[in-house]
Amino acid sequence: MPPSLRFLKGLVTTLMITMILGVIAVVYLLVTRMPDGRAQIPALPPDIVLPVGQKAQAVTFGQGWSAVVTTSQTLLIFDAKGAMVHSVDLQDLAAKN
Fold it and tell me: How far apart are alpha carbons 30 and 15 in whole angstroms?
């Protein structure tokens, strides 16, 4: 076998070993670093009551507060006890910009 082919064979073998180790590392990191799929989702306070005719489209949580975006494009901010603190009409906000 010519020396250039031996060199090329060595490079291909090295690349193969590097790729195998890389795949093993990625799989290991995915398995060990992925969050637990059984983790509990934060619960809305039971006292949160949406205004009549409003339906929740999205919910987000902060420390001591919850925010609900309704299908009528209204952002409702609730405190930790479930009392509505603030309401923002997102359509009016978008019209101003």
Answer: 22
Q: What tokens does 33 get?
A: 């670093």
Q: Are strands 74-79 and 65-70 parallel, antiparallel or unpaired?
A: antiparallel
Predicted TM-score (pTM) above 0.85: no
d(CA 40, CA 17): 40
Q: Angle at the Cα of 63 (from 82 to 84), degrees rounded to 5?
A: 25
Is 39:58 a contact under the CB 8 Å cutoff? no
Domain ranges of the chain: 1-39, 56-96
Average pLDDT per 10 consecutive residues for the chain, totaling 97 residues? 90 98 95 74 75 88 89 91 89 75
Q: How many CB atoms lie within 10 A of CB 56?
A: 13
- DSSP track, 43-72: PPPTT--PPTT--EEEEEEETTEEEEEETT
